[in-house]
Amino acid sequence: MAEHKKDPIMSVEQVTKIFSSGVFFRSYTTAVQDVSFKMYPGTVLSLIGESGSGKTTMGRMILKLLRPTAGKIYFHGRDIATIRGKAERREYYRRVQGIFQDPFSSFNPLFRVDRVFDQIYDVFFPELPAAERQARTREALLKVHLHPERTLAHFPHQLSGGQLQRLLIARALLLDVEILVADELISMLDASTRMGILNLLVDICRSTGMSVLFITHDLALGYYISDYTMIMHRGRLVEQGATHEVYHNPVHPYTRMLFRSVPDIGRRWDPKERFIPEQVSREIEEFYSANRGRGLVQVSPNHAVLMSLD
Amino acid sequence: MAAEVILDVRDLRAYYRILKGDVKAVDGVSFQVRRGEIVGIAGESGCGKSTLAHTLMLRKPPLTHISGQALFLGRDIMAMGREEFRQLRLRKISIIPQYALDALSPTKKLGEFVADLVREHGIPADRAFWAKVEERLRFVNLDPKVLDQYPIELSGGMKQRAIMVVSTILNPELIIADEITSALDVSSQRFAASLLVQLRDEGIIGSAIFITHDLAILYQIADSLLIMYGGHIVEAGPVDTIVHEPRHPYTQALLNSLPKVGVQVKDQRLEGIKGTPPELLEIGPGCRFRERCPYRTERCEQTPVTEAITPEHTIACWHHREIGGERVG
Questions:
Q1: Domain boundaries, chain A
Q2: How far does the CA of residue B69 sit from the closest CA of chain A (Å)?
């Protein structure tokens, strides 16, 4: 990837995650394999893949919810596996946060939504007086374009999915978040509400220098929001680079197949093409064997493609 | 030349009757489906699009038919008894419901599920029937071996194909597909959506109603579009007209909020629609989009009358003449 003037906030180096299951007959599933990337301040990095590609597992490793089987993840140069103990972990989560697909599951339906803010204060700023807490919460809510009176003291079911996602973004704003893992953040939202959330995320990113890992299956949204794009297939990053280059000059057969399936308004699918998604496995095999020995190739300064597995 | 109308829905109203009152989810909806046509119904969550499908297919309390007709091949299915309608189901009119992926019984092999289903409809699961099932499975690029497998062994995309085969096995005149692509990966989405077109082109199904929140998919496969908002159809017409020359402020705003490959936030900011859809419980008269509409006037307190701009293009907005066409995309 391109040379950045700034140092990366986070650096993922050759991370692999293997899940094992079964007691008597152990079986292993490689969810993430040999993945490396860097996250820079003020940028949005999309991680695009279909179900089972390992994208969520990758996000969970950054959030220290899962431990890599091999490889390292560095946060400001420090291996996050060495972050242990309550105080250190708390410090880490002050800087690295996640927001997930289903906003309703991030809230306890029995409590008012304010609780998610109170939890943040109790854990991170216990000495902060109540008045100051309230002022900070209101400020954060206004930043995400929510009306404090119309959201605070409400129960989750009284608010829409879009409002709840904004609340969670506001919650992240209370901390000095440097890395936000947004896993399918807007997949459950309607077309008319999700744009507001995306614009908001980009604005925060640009103004605070926060870096977003935007995990999605939606290619058009990924294009809209991200500076860099990574395409994940069966645990591997098969193509990555500046969004514009990856989208307009896809090289890997899997990336090409994905782009052929995007429903784009103004450009119709070729009705004559017999499109069968599973054929891509064979195309990938052929592609790898035709490029044997080349491995990860930098096809342009801002664009790298996995040409073969050896 | 216009083909025969096979479904003619006239001023249909279906409300959820609950303790607090009526939720007016389908409120005066009229449209037609012609033979061979794929009609797309688009709208956001809570606009009544799925309720419309349920009203036509599987009305269960508290969903109650209030008034209006739905003439299917000339007979009003709203006036039919349970038994009479059962004769039509699967044979003439069939639904691929939302969450169909979970509809398969986890403890039954796919073949047993299919056998039970057709037995329920009084259709013999004989050799000729299974030969047809296998042929259709091959048509969707599935190995007939899947009949011997449990749902858990199949991926989402494969399950969706199997369900589409089952729902269309008796060559229905009309299929209602409710959000069949929303739970799928992009590549499976394209396959499932294109499959509907193929089934139509092969004459396996007559016509289809494709319900989704995803306008971009409808653009790919539909012949005509109905845009629903708050239980009303606000605009309807041929797909290219709606997508490129939308006249209703809601359709215009919705299209403007869609991301397209080629549009990046740093070059062009797309805007959503401010506000939220109306609560349909005991909702009064008036245009239901008015709270979010930049063109709102006092007149919008009355429910707009649906007018035809051209014979195919209809709109329900008091101000469509002043607003005019906005070319999008």
A1: 10-263+275-306
A2: 30
